[in-house]
Amino acid sequence: MGRAVTVATCALNQWALDFEGNLERIFRSIAIAKSKGARYRLGPELEICGYGCADHYYESDTLLHSFQVLEKLLESPATEDIICDVGMPVLHRNVRYNCRVIFLNKKILLIRPKISLANAGNYRELRWFTPWSKARHVEEYFLPRIIQEVTGQETVPFGDAVLATKDTCLGAEICEELWAPNSPHIEMGLDGVEIFTNSSGSHHVLRKAHARVDLVNSATAKNGGIYILANQKGCDGDRLYYDGCAMISMNGETVAQGSQFSLDDVEVLVATLDLEDVRSYRAEISSRNLAASKVNPYPRVKVNFALSCPDDVAVPTCMPIQWRHHSPEEEISLGPACWLWDYLRRSQQAGFLLPLSGGIDSSATACIVYSMCHQVCLAVKNGNADVLADARRIVNDETYIPEDPREFCKRVFTTCYMASENSSQDTCNRAKLLAEQIGSYHINLNIDAAVKAVVGIFSVVTGRTPRFSVYGGSSRESLALQNVQARIRMVLAYLFAQLTLWARGMPGGLLVLGSANVDESLRGYLTKYDCSSADINPIGGISKTDLKNFIQYCIENFQLTALRSIMSAPPTAELEPLVDGQVAQTDEADMGMTYAELSIYGKLRKIAKAGPYSMFCKLINIWKEICTPREVASKVKHFFRMYSVNRHKMTTLTPSYHAENYSPDDNRFDLRPFLYNTSWSWQFMCIDKQVNAL
Q: Of the residues 169, 175, 245, 367, which is catalytic?
């Protein structure tokens, strides 16, 4: 009898509303799966329209075009003799569902709606979809006429059911259902389902991949079975980077692992596995078998098709492998680099411009662009025709082949050091040396004339001339003068981004990169509408601590020796006058807190859901060896004052790569007021009472 089943899963770089491109990538994945002998192919969540359509899901066009793509898939000979499992939105009885459409040989077998919707953090699925709440219930779905004409079916099963083929039984989960405490695979496994599938739209967060892998492996460790996970990859038009990691697991062990970060638009994993291994694994788990004897059965859709061949005794099967996880530094090097590449090629721009200050943040951003150039050259070397075509279009040269990352960097990356009278020669030299080592086209300019012109207008109108604090001015005057410098840098960054290539006789414009880290954004330690205001920011979701570790990684792996002096220098905005030619202003002194403290505040505020009082209560224990309760109270109060005073800046925060779960991104992740009572009188009173009691 047939026992060796060959199944395929994939990671696809789909793009919201790119129906033509999405269809081409789906077809390509099916062709690869078939060429490797697969009889079942699983794709990512909502792969037909792209996961990130957001409020476009409300539009009937999105539903219509999804069915038009499904029609193309159904009628194509490319989808014959393989069960295809694709994702799309479906309207059933005037209710919109996030669905899997499973078909074989021009017949739809089942439409399976999502049961548990993702609705936390970056996800808002309940805004657009309704969860299917009728467990083990199937209804008739009336197909649109364009589909009826292809399939010859008027209605198909719609609901919570499983597929029974000639040789096994398959059950579907969709993304969030794997993370739910009552995952469907538990009951399905007890009811005899041997192959579980999961189509995901799961995004990258630093140090998250192991959690997904552990969940998949644990899904079959207790209950036995084969688990197949597909995921989206790339930037599909938003702040998130979907990080692939397609995988296949059996009986608690990984047997196939896809890449987490790559520039391949289509990646297909195929595994051949022995169903008898599942059956023998389950046979000795008596607790599982007792529970299985009492389970409420799932409706089964019978499929006259087998995933195995009758004579398969000699067919080799896949063995368990050890999953390789990236270090956080590798994740920073690869994830934002792939996100930048997707953004660059899909925005039809000619490269990036970065104001390079010679500090850690802008240098880390430059290193991520350099890493992107490395990835492009490596992909071309490995024969990726899509990347080569994109690179040629970006540099406007149909014969170009990117081979050297530094040379490619010169073509697509412009760095600009914007000096003022408050800038030190040290930072100028550091920026220049780093630009030389990564190969960027580097510009040195001075902003003093523009600053004096703007301040001069104010002086003419008011008759008053503001001064820095060191020259006898007030803190208001000093802050205003610092902000003028910062904002002029933003204006010049956009001017040079639009016209630098024009001045060099080259076509196209440049995307402006921001370089404010997640901690500075949380504290509000940035000027509104300064160089933090850009088109995109690859480090806006990364902490200062992680960026320092990433810089060290770049020194060791990219041999960028210029970073050593950048690492050792204290972070500074260089907006106040120098003292004896040396920098007197430092970031941590300005902020009144260290970057390490900021990371702790951020995690407690967002991840631990701590307000001022709860944060104080947690920190008096965490910091009991280094701070008195009164000192902790002072620190917590200062953080919340500064956070609330500056929260309005988050409303205009540059779209940033989402990498940390304590991001203060106001767009969709961290929804808070931006006009606070910054005295926090009641909360601080509770802290003071506790301090006095202690």
A: 175
